[in-house]
Amino acid sequence: MPTLTRRDAVRGGVLSLAALAGCATGGDSNSGAGGDQPRLDRVRVSNRVSRAVSLDLQLELDGEVVFWDDIEMPAAGEDDEVEGAEFAPPDFPRERGDWRIRTRDRDTDETYTTQFTSETTAESCLDLGINVREDGIEITYVATHDCEDVTTTQQTES
After folding, report:
1. Which domain holds residue 102?
2. Is 15 helix (H, G, I), strand (E, B) or coil?
3. What CATH number is given to the structural domain containing 105?
4. What is the mean pLDDT of residues 68-84?
5. Region Disordered: which residues (predicted)?
6. Can you tell me whether residue 153 is helix, strand or coil?
7. pTM of the predicted model, to two decimals?
8. Domains of the chain: total
9. Mean of the pLDDT values across residues 38-58?
10. What is the DSSP letter of 5?
């Protein structure tokens, strides 16, 4: 029987802990871990172009429209970014599910869509950024398993 080295023991312990990650928490679908589906926590909209922008923002949860807003943002200055609106629950449900994000630039009539599902961002809490750029609308996100309980909503106007 081969001798167990300290390095092998530590490696085995780390692999065991990694395999159990997330198993110690409850299955509450509103907690930071648990549930297969992602949860949307915040959406921030910004303008980085030199023209005023008018956007439609639509959020779908499991195929049902749960949020729809028209967002107006002034033109950004040189090397500047105009912060638009910020949305968080209770503007939309604090629930896990399949989320589809649609934005439409009303001036160009271009529509951008992305979807977050258990296959793409399982068990994650999502913080989205919708950025209007010269080459189109960019939808970015940060996904974390450490979900905060966000209860306030801020809307910033310039």
Report:
1. 37-144
2. helix
3. 2.60.40.3110
4. 85
5. 76-97
6. coil
7. 0.68
8. 1
9. 93
10. P
